[in-house]
Amino acid sequence: MKAYPRCAPCLLARVHYEATLSTDDPELQQRAVQAGVRWLDDSFSINTPATYISTGIHRRAYEVLGDEDPYAAKKKMSNEIALKVLPMAEKMVNEDDAFRRSIIASIVGNTLDFGVLGFEPEERFDVYLMDVFKKGLDVDDTDKMKGLLDDVLYIADNCGEIVFDGLVLDQIKRLGGKVTLVVKGAPILTDATLKEAEETGISKKADRVLTTGSNAVGVDLDEAPDELVKALKNASLIISKGMANYEALSEYDFRPIAYLLRAKCEPIAASLGVKKGWNVAILYAFA
Amino acid sequence: MKAYPRCAPCLLARVHYEATLSTDDPELQQRAVQAGVRWLDDSFSINTPATYISTGIHRRAYEVLGDEDPYAAKKKMSNEIALKVLPMAEKMVNEDDAFRRSIIASIVGNTLDFGVLGFEPEERFDVYLMDVFKKGLDVDDTDKMKGLLDDVLYIADNCGEIVFDGLVLDQIKRLGGKVTLVVKGAPILTDATLKEAEETGISKKADRVLTTGSNAVGVDLDEAPDELVKALKNASLIISKGMANYEALSEYDFRPIAYLLRAKCEPIAASLGVKKGWNVAILYAFA
Fold first, then answer.
1. Is residue B82 in some structural domain?
2. 3-state SS record for chain B
3. Is this prediction's ipTM beyond 0.95?
4. What residues of A are in contact with residue B19 (Cβ under 8 Å)?
């Protein structure tokens, strides 16, 4: 996916947000924002892949902030809360139509910003989850995914969310498939790395765990280990979680690939041909 | 007021917004956003007056868009809706404590984005207005303003809002004062110019109408007519409506000056020493 005009203010707002997570010093916050502005001035265009711009802007902000992981505390809290909610979600998934429901739980996991703005997940997570179980996904290709589970490459997204990804991993194995889990090679935004995959116990549910090889937003093949490139080519199904992985992987032609996400912004929704706010499990079987 | 780090993404988001108001062409939208990014790269610093940055960014965007007034339709709608609500607001103001209530109505006029996001002003305006009448302003220096109404300079802000400013003008005259109304010299954002002051009939309520001499955000004295500079020096009271006029006039030492606004963002709230969301009528009597 290429960048949209509205990506520029959104990325800059995110840089400001991570600056406030990292420091209370307005001068340092300003320098991070200025570094972001400079990078946008150098790179921003609607002909440029969105993740090229986002990877660059966050790397520059992290460098100015002298902070490898401004979201560290937020990530930790997300995992803790998700692990608390997990038994309830697991029970609800296993009651009926478990593969589809596990996908839904993992998408709802992508929806909720745990620990943000007074949100109380114990109260609302089950309500929202049950709501999406009832009304269904807005695009639902889960049935078509079922026949492609032999050797799945599962590309994870955020902390917190990854705990619910574990429910999908369970279902893939229950249905006789193998699964390779992919996490980020180094901290970026709220994304899960090897550290969090291990701390949450999710890495144990996979037959193999790979990383993207770097802290690039989504996946940057120029920075990815050969093993991951091979796995992308050979997987019976790639499952890609969240918006940033969609932005990155939609620039390549790997097939079959299923994108599981909530379309939280207009550009992603427009690129996918869906509406903002939709919960989407969309399969691209052929290039 | 100097710029805050978070002003940068906010300004860029506003540029994107006005680009979408002006054109459906994503390439032209992109060029407006890029021009904004370039200007931020040139000008953005927390030592720079906020309105220097905002005036520059919108002028560049308007130029790229080839559009003198991207908000024209929105301004027109705001005035129409405000005029529809006016008789009800006027009745409520005159029921009790009319000077204070007129100030409150003009601040509530600053609060509401008429015609935005499905807001239905006929239904909610009276409820919100009555609510603020009841609970009062969060900072209320209206009593101190009453003794300073001999020769008021009233610096207006947005279309729609200006209709309710007329209620304050009525009260100033009722209390024996004279009033000079100041509107923008040319279109900028949703601000009222001479055209809208006349179309709404508000200009007739003033003893004299001046303009800021340009489309600068707030007031830029380098671009203002001598008459306005004199009036700023000689007024018995300056009443400044809205955030942008505060950002601009707080860079100077004109006194006494009353700022009437809702603090819609953190930087303004921090600069004024109030909380975000507060309705404020604050008087600075001495430099």
1. yes
2. CECCCCHHHHHHHHHHHHHHHHCCCHHHHHHHHHHHHHHHHHHCCCCCEHHHHHHHHHHHHHHHHCCCCCCHHHHHHHHHHHHHHHHHHHHHHHCCCHHHHHHHHHHHHHHCCCCCCCCCHHHHHHHHHHHHHHHCCCEECHHHHHHHCCEEEEECCECCHHHHHHHHHHHHHHCCCEEEEEEECCCCCCECEHHHHHHCCHHHHCCEEEECCCCCCCCCHHHCCHHHHHHHHHCCEEEEEHHHHHHHHCCCCCCCEEEEEECCCHHHHHHHCCCCCCEEEEEECCC
3. no
4. 5
